[in-house]
Amino acid sequence: MRSFIAIPVADDTAKALAALQRRLAVGRPLPRDNLHLTLAFLDDQSEETLEALHEELQQIRCAPFALSLAGLGQYGRAVHLVVSDTPALTALHGSIGRAVSRAGISLPRRRFRPHVTIIRLKPGTRLRRLREDVAGFRYEDMPVDRFALYGSTLHPEGARHDCLADYPLASTARNETGES
């Protein structure tokens, strides 16, 4: 199954991003359910491997935190908002990378560039024209209180993401029954 680990975008943040998508009025805005910050793209994985990963991800402890989104970027045809550097996000990303490795999944070594994709562009559309439309856009204090394991199915109209497992953030240790 094609899968990835990501931070879902909270409802209030999604509303602000939908308004930005309307202001840009180009390309294909990503639907609400597809707005996320990818922490690890896992590509195709077996059900057994995802079960092992699930066990590892359940062990991660991290206190909830907030992120800031500011500035547009573009990777190919994807327009995204850049996520400001946040030590808590860097630590969570590292913990997830170690859990992925313990589950037997090898990830390509890439620099972590956190972002939230908001629009898919048509070929030939230039981001340079778009920057003026959103000059000064910032979204402060996007709450991060969970991350999730997603399955992704490709369709002609775009990918559909299904949450396979949700991992609430909490800094407290759980007892043997899984309770806090």
TrEMBL record:
It comes from the Bacteria. Keywords: Hydrolase. It catalyses: a 3'-end 2',3'-cyclophospho-ribonucleotide-RNA + H2O = a 3'-end 2'-phospho-ribonucleotide-RNA + H(+). The keyword Hydrolase applies. It is an enzyme of class 3 (hydrolase). A motif (HXTX 1) lies at residues 36-39. The active site is at 36 (proton donor), 115 (proton acceptor). Pfam families: 2_5_RNA_ligase2. A motif (HXTX 2) lies at residues 115-118. InterPro entries: Cyclic_Pdiesterase, RNA_CPDase. Hydrolyzes RNA 2',3'-cyclic phosphodiester to an RNA 2'-phosphomonoester. Belongs to the 2H phosphoesterase superfamily. ThpR family. NCBIfam families: 2_5_ligase. PANTHER family: RNA 2',3'-CYCLIC PHOSPHODIESTERASE. This is RNA 2',3'-cyclic phosphodiesterase. The lineage of its organism: Bacteria, Pseudomonadati, Pseudomonadota, Alphaproteobacteria, Rhodobacterales.
